[in-house]
Amino acid sequence: MNLTRIFVFTCLMMTALCSTAQEARKWTLEQCIDYAMAHNINVRQAQITAQIAKNDKTQSMMNVLPQVDASASYNFNFGNSLNPVTYSFVESNSQSSQLSLTGSLPLFTGLQQIHNIQRAKYDLIASDFDYKAAQNNIALSVSSAYLQILLNQEIVGVMEKQRDLSASQKANTESRVKSGVLPEYSIYQMEAQLARDEANLINAQGAYDISVLTLKQLLQLNDTLGFALDIPNVDVENIANVAGENSTSIYNYAVGNQPTILSAQARIKSADAQRKMALGNFSPTLSFFTQLSTGYFSQDQRVSKYDTIQTPFGPYTTPSEYAKVPVGDQFGNNFRKIAGFQLSIPIFGKGQRFTNLANAKLQTQLRTLQLESAKNTLRQDIEQAYNNARIAAESYYANKKSFESAQKSQEMLDKRYRSGMSNEFELQQAKNTLAAAESEMAKAKYTYVFRLKVLDFYKGKKITLN
């Protein structure tokens, strides 16, 4: 019984420690981005693709090495068969074996192997930049989701304050109704307002939960794990103003550093190397080859005894008995060495070489157009991001001014209401206006922060809230 209690107590302690460890971990924006880069499926797929390109480049370099192959065969021949040693027919069942070692070395292939190495090299560069682009995309997505959580959390705080304020005003109204200062229906109006505030708080909490789920999905996190953010102090006033930026200068930097552009440039070079490979198909090829081989034939025989016959012209020796040649002797006797050169001259290949060359040229043109398209897209994205940041800055400062005015108005009406100089309708209108202004200011603040972080991304800066 004591052992059972100890076991249960130990399990509870371990569970408590694990829960405490999960709750204690606070995720910063940088930690979220780093985790997503290591676990997000799209990023991992891009990483694997880059590894495949690396293997392809290694193989293209190894293609210039000699190729050596070994082969072995053992055959059962039924009926008449051909002796592979003497090339004579044997009228019986037989067995044969062949062993060979073949080597070949390309000496000249129209520089196709050299250009293939260049193609693989630029494909690897492009894949590496694609991997970097995938990391950048996930960093932007995580930043957007992270800031959305901060925004929704701030809105939840606004709704909680409004709910608490309504509860306080309801209690004040009840006391004033009891004293006869206000009519009884004033209580029902405040109860209705409190219910609306609680509903708004529930909706805000639901939006917060959805934004947390979105970030978890980007991080590939199990939804059952403890998850909390390390809330930074996002002070917009300390962030560089967008007025000091210039979309043209940002583009001039980004066009030489963004991985999407660098990847497109590398693919142009890869396509040009592919064109040179297609051109090399018209060239003669020269290769060196060598072969070592031996074999065994079960019916191979040699003379084991001779008879001497006397003739008018003297003695004549003739074979009288035959014996099968041992396997070891056959492998030694049949050992052959071959070495030579092979020249291949392309003459007519059904037009395939011309088609491949034409398609390779078109592929180069296509890659060039894709680069121009990527540059145009980058320019448009930067101009849009710059305008969005500028508009977000103006929106934030306008909403900040609106919030400050609504806050002063609500404070004045609250004093008037407490002194009996204002009614519940005016107070509720002021409170709703303040809540709306505070929510809009929070939205504008985090929108402004994210827009500036997008510009930082195009400027090659690490995304951080510090």
Describe this protein's structure.
The chain has 466 residues and is an alpha+beta fold. It has a single domain (26-458), classed as Outer membrane efflux proteins (OEP) (Up-down Bundle). The protein is 64% helix and 16% strand. The chain is built from 10 helices and 8 strands. The protein has helices at residues 2-24, 29-39, 41-62, 112-178, 185-219, 247-254, 259-280, 327-333, 352-418, 424-458; strands at residues 67-77, 80-82, 89-91, 94-108, 285-297, 301-311, 314-324, 336-344. The strands form 3 sheets. Strands 1-4-5-8 form a 4-stranded antiparallel β-sheet, with helices on one face. Strands 2-3 form a two-stranded antiparallel sheet. Helix 2 packs across helix 4 (112-178) and helix 6 packs antiparallel against helix 9 (352-418).
Q: What is the CATH homologous superfamily assignment? A: Outer membrane efflux proteins (OEP)
The level-1 CATH class? Mainly Alpha
Distance from first to last alpha carbon = 55 Å
- Percent range for β-strand residues: 15-25%
Could you give a short account of the major beta sheet?
A: 4 strands, antiparallel
Give helix and strand order, one letter per element, not per position.
Answer: HHHEEEEHHHHEEEHEHH
The total of helices stands at 10
Shape: elongated
> What is the number of strand segments?
8
Domain module tally: 1
Mean pLDDT: 83
Reading side by side through the largest sheet, how are the strands ordered? 1-4-5-8
Low-confidence stretches: 1-13, 15-24
Instruction: Indicate the structural class.
Output: alpha+beta
Reported CATH architecture? Up-down Bundle
CATH topology descriptor: Outer membrane efflux proteins (OEP)
Helix content: 55-70%
- CA radius of gyration is 42 Å
